[in-house]
Amino acid sequence: MNSLLLTMVLMIAPAPEPAMTLVEAGRPVSSIVTADDASDTVRRAAEELADTIRRMSGAKLPIASEGKARRGRRIDVGLTCKARSHLPEGFADDAERVLIRTVPDGLLICGGSDRGTLFAVYRFLEVLGCRWLTPEPENEVIPHQSTVTVPSLAIDTQPAFQWRLFGGSRPELERWGVRMGMNGLYTEEAAGRNGACLYWPPDVSGVHTFQKLMPNERYFKAHPEWYPLLRGRRAPGKLHNAQLCVTAPGLADEFAANVIRVFDEDPRRQLVSISPNDGYGWCTCPACTELDRKLCGGRTTKQGLSGAKPFRGDRVFWFANEVARRVAKKYPNKKLLVLAYVNYAEPPDTIRPLPNVVPFLCHYAPADYAHAINDPASEPNRQFNELLKRWARITPEVMIYSYVSKSMWWRLPRPVLRPFAADIKHFHELGIRRYYCQSSLTDWPLDGPLYYVIGRLLWDPSADPKEIAGEWIRQMFGPAAPEMSAYYDAVDTAVRTTGRSYSDSPPRDVPGLYDRKSFDAAMAALERAEKVPADQRVKHRIAEVAQTFRYGYRMVEAIEKYHRFCESGDPELLEAAAATGREALEYRKVRESARLIDSWAVFSELGVPASGFGKAETKDGHRCWNSDETGPGDQSHGWASFIIRVPDTKKPVNLEIDVWGTSQLGGIVVNTKRGVWTPVRPQKRISGKPQWETLVWHIPPEAMDQTRVGQRVGFGGADSQVWIAEIRAKQP
Question: pLDDT of 261-289, one tens digit each?
Fold first, then answer.
């Protein structure tokens, strides 16, 4: 038996029954049997078994219900009457428990529920040598053999984690996820065929849902008091930086009624997020302020990206409990997910989540993806680990939000398999049983065996991730596996050698992150792999990996050149960075990298290197750029920043910016050190008139980063619209 299968089971032991032949010399000699009342999921499981064996051997095993005639030895799929007579006591109490057992007159493949039976079929097919390496059909492994025989089996297993979730809305992702034993988040349409795996309600999908459950276009006119008091007036809700007035009379009733309606529409729905909108925008009314004072003393927290902010954890989970009490009266077993994020990532001081509330803790700010969470050498992860352990002590319901595919990392090399594997084991040791991957699990040319390893470890955290990854590499690359293994090792070594941390910002984190010698070794290993004689499928797989790495190799070099420009102010380095970046984009078109390179080209017109700005516009004859790259009025999050050269950081600098007078601009923020932005106000306020005007900021030395010549300045996030024509930094 393949050693990898041992990582998928809790117990496997020899049984006295002999081996069983399913297909002999291309002829079916067994039949698949299901219960007379088998569900769609069990029928799918039976059909998957029959179809895969047909692809292996050319023989189609007949499928029949228990009450109908059949030929040969029987394979019982699901809880047939025969299977029930062989089940251990209490087997059906565990929905995803899997039993695969040879018995005197056949084979049993079943689970504690329909979904468990589907998982059991895939575990059995793995015994036969089948593998699903990625969601793409061309990366399936189906062995070809005219005779199919199974050894004596006694497998009894169940997954270590209760929820094993990722974003898999496309059919091919759902198929692959179920084959790997992931039980959501899929789609409503898929629930009937996968045993009601978990899925987002279509109208309340995702995690930031205050606005989705309480849309201002429906409620704001009649109930402005349900929306936040910001800068002295009630502001309509939106997906970014505007929350709800959680203390407003009647809000919790209406909010809970909308959640109940979600569950009424489809009883199969098991969860819904009732999390705040993204960003901040917390209500400042007297009642909400008094609630904070009463529950947590109105304290601040350093969790998040911008230094100390008012702590909102007690407020968030107080409101969640108010909603949860109302929902539980009708649906006591449904789960309400509540993000623990930015300035509400810490556990509440006094509030304790009710049993139907699932805190959804994001490994974000502080976060270091180069190291395991319980690695004491990583200061960001040390802080997060303390926070994690506090949550684990408070409630067993906590779920981890893991950034398995970090969208903000621009498809650059991100070797996280080793630390993420260690994290899963750590979570399990802490008693955490829910794990969500922020990933569509599609970018295998970048992340290699990462998804495969995570899927395995969520069933058995004690398994060896190196062995699992090694099997994936062997199955994926065949004769080129040694070279590809050397490639993955070298990329991992590139980060381990420097010992540097990284989180979510390539322009900030990439410089100095990778050891160039290890990077070169990775490239050399890929070049050797490309020369290995192999079939077209393997060559195509290697080419996909090589193309992605060549993009990353050059884009890293471009960012490092840009970093040296920021330190020195030498414009030739900026030109070199742009040229190298354009080379990188010839291999992979990555939007974020293209925007950064375009922003370097803006240098000659705007006067400074910048990022995050929108496309060039014209106002009153002046060419200008908006500080929100996604455009005005879309309520989307933007973050425009630029670099000014300050040769002497011991002296103040005057910053002049030509600004369109109707811009939404109260100030700027200066990046004094990693993750900390210091606000600075202009010497005079913007007029609010449709005209060009020059605003001046006096930036003192203490507001600057004393370690570098290039100082980063930003306009903040959210949907703020600031039009800039030119930026000048002057120093006496």
Answer: 999 999 899 999 999 998 889 999 999 99
Token duo for residue 6:
């041992």
Domain 3-160 has CATH 3.30.70.141: no
Tokens of 74: 């029987």
d(CA 505, CA 83) in angstroms, rounded, equals 54
Rounded distance between C-alpha atoms, residue 366 and residue 342, angstroms:
9
Structure tokens at 84: 């029930």
Helices (H) and strands (E) in the chain, counts: 21, 34
DSSP state of 102: E
- Report the C-alpha gap between 729 and 699 in whole angstroms: 10
How many Cβ atoms sit within 10 Å of the Cβ of residue 615? 9
Alpha-carbon distance 617 to 611, whole Å? 16
Nearest to 575 by CA among 594, 590, 562: 562
DSSP string for 156-171: EE--SSSEEEE---SH
| Both tokens assigned to 549 | 């790495």
Answer yes or no: are the C-beta atoms of 508 and 365 closer than 8 Å.
no
- Specify the DSSP class assigned to residue 208: B
| pLDDT classification of 674: cutoffs 50, 70, 90 | low
What average pLDDT does the chain have? 91
What three-state secondary structure class fits 250? coil
704 strand-pairing partners = none
Write out the H or E segment, with its range, that includes residue 124: helix 114-127
CATH 2.30.30.60, domain 604-730, yes or no: no
Residue 582 CB coordination number (10 Å):
15
- Is residue 549 helix, strand or coil? helix
For 446-467, the pLDDT digits (tens) are: 999 999 999 999 999 999 999 9
Q: Is the dihedral of CA 615, 620, 622, 627 positive or negative?
A: negative
Going by DSSP bridges, is the β-strand pair 641-645/622-626 parallel, antiparallel, or unpaired? Answer: unpaired
Alpha-carbon gap, residue 447 to 453, rounded angstroms: 11
pLDDT at 43 (0 to 100): 96
* Amino acid type, 244: L
Domain locations along the chain: 3-160, 200-360, 604-730
pTM above 0.90, yes or no: no
Handedness of CA 57, 11, 437, 584 (dihedral sign): negative
CB atoms within 10 A of CB 357: 24
**Do 3-160 and 604-730 show the same overall fold?**
no
How many Cα atoms within 13 Å fall on the side-chain side of residue 15? 20
Tell me the DSSP string of 50-70. HHHHHHHHS----EEETTS--
Q: At what angle do helices 114-127 and 40-57 cross, to 10 degrees?
A: 10
Rounded distance between C-alpha atoms, residue 238 and residue 638, angstroms: 14
Q: Which two tokens stand for residue 292?
A: 């904070």
